[in-house]
Amino acid sequence: MAEYERNHYIPNKVVKNFATREENGKYKINIIDLQKQAIIKRNSESAFYEKNLYDVKNEDVKKLEKDLKTKIEEPFYKILYRLVNEEYDTFIITREELEIIKKFLLIQQYRNLKNSFGYCENFNKDGVLSRYNIKDDESLLDFWKREIQAILDNSLEDLVLKNDLVGVKFNTRSIYTGFLMFVHTTEEFVLNDLGCVTERLPIKMKFSPEEYCKMAEEVGKKLFGVDGFGHVAKKRAEENSEFMDNFFLFPVSSDLAILVVDEFWIKVYLNALGQEFLDKWGISPSLLLSKHFSLPKNDFVNKHIIKNMDDVQKYKSKYDKYTYKIHELDEWDTIYINNLLMNEAYRYIGFKTKDKIMSSVAAYVMKQISGVENVKNDLKFVFESENNQ
Questions:
Q1: Are 230 and 373 part of one and the same domain?
Q2: 244: closest CA among 211, 287, 194, 213?
Q3: Exposed, middle or buried: residue 111 (CB in 10 Å: 0-12, 13-18, 19+)?
Q4: Which residues contact 298 (CB under 8 A, 6 or more apart)?
Q5: Which of 218, 241, 264 is the last residue of a domain?
Q6: Best CA proximity match to 105, nearest among 8, 172, 200
Q7: Are residues 149 and 216 in the same domain?
Q8: Can you give the pTM of this predicted structure?
Q9: Quick one: residue 274, left, alpha or beta (phi over 0 = left, psi -120 to 50 = alpha)?
Q10: pLDDT in tens, the chain (389 residues)
Q11: Which H or E run contains 348?
């Protein structure tokens, strides 16, 4: 049973991709501890984990941890190995592998330590979707684990179309309908303890809170079959603080990251919605996607009988192939992404080479000093320790 006590919320095989292999065969990763304001080194297996985090109350208390390993981590690692070790400017995956990647990324959004605490801290706040499905005798953490188990046990399609967990359906939908992208840097990405980050930009609405709440209520009823979405949106509408997540980004090695680009952003990019619509919503451009964006090239097994978009779903095969361009990011793109990751870190930031990430730290510290809005963490100690050496 001891082998299942260390529950990694960032899997060890991902952490290793941000670590250096030493002579004894161990992988060491540098960790910025935001709470202790210290930089330490840890073995990869001793980083980004919590003891017994996923224990469940049934005959096999380690069931969730075991299922995370066998149902998603091991299948994903086979794809990750190819991605990290192949030296091509494109990456080809099947539809089956696409499902595995998306499910892994969805799980990563859920499984992190910040999310587990967030359920308990924010449950009574407006906008929390957990309230739709939690049982009277169920703790918030038990409900969180039940959601993770549901994701492991179902296909993404079923999670969107047949699942009744509103929060899971809501979060799965953005991954399910989004488009993957792969980006590479000759600099280095950092790894935060969420394992992901979003590019979240404000929307400045040009209609009344009442109009917006009515639209939110209709969307909630249509997509999720529940009432109350208008109430969920009320506070953001009144404060004009609504936002759009252009993409989720998941670093999977010190030089590679996977993005899930929001379907809505793609429609904006392709001008399918019209400039008048964009102006009405006050939608801001994506700072990264405006420079780097591409859709995959598709090779469907049944392409000879596919006549329209409905046919793609009707005649889909797990052997359909998708070819993705791997976009090359420059130093400033990398700094931008690292600053997003640093800002959302809960307590820990991992990295491989200090010299490589110091430009990102310096840029973040400048935002702190300049009083840039929404800078959440204090990284001055990292920059100061570098200067004092």
A1: no
A2: 287
A3: buried
A4: 320, 321, 322
A5: 241
A6: 172
A7: no
A8: 0.92
A9: left
A10: 467 899 999 999 999 999 999 988 899 999 999 999 999 999 999 999 999 999 998 889 999 999 999 999 999 999 999 999 988 999 999 999 999 999 999 999 999 888 877 666 555 544 567 778 888 888 888 999 999 999 999 999 999 999 999 989 989 999 999 999 999 999 999 999 999 999 988 777 777 888 888 888 888 888 888 887 777 777 777 777 777 889 999 999 999 999 999 988 887 766 666 666 667 667 777 889 989 999 999 999 999 999 988 899 999 999 999 999 999 999 999 999 999 999 999 999 999 999 999 999 999 999 999 988 889 999 999 977 655 54
A11: strand 348-351
Whether residues 186 and 218 fall in one domain: no
Same-domain check for residues 103 and 233: no
Cα four-point dihedral sign 134, 138, 142, 148? negative
Range of the domain at 328: 2-203+247-387
Task: Specify the pairing of strand 321-329 against strand 179-185.
Answer: parallel
Residue among 134, 166, 97 at smallest CA distance from 319 = 97
CA 87/CA 82 separation, integer angstroms = 9
| Angle at alpha carbon of residue 384, lines to 380 and 385, rounded to 5° | 120
Mind spelling out the 3-state secondary structure of 64-79? HHHHHHHHHHHHHHHH
Residues 24 and 171 in one domain: yes
Q: Does 227 share its domain with 330?
A: no
- Residue after which a domain boundary falls, among 189, 217, 241: 241
Q: What is the DSSP string of 32-54?
A: EETTTTEEEEEEGGGSSEEETTT
- What is the rounded CA–CA span in Å between residue 241 and residue 205? 9
One domain, residues 112 and 256:
yes
Output the six-digit token pair for 76. 């994903």
Number of domains in the chain: 2
Same structural domain, 235 and 380 = no
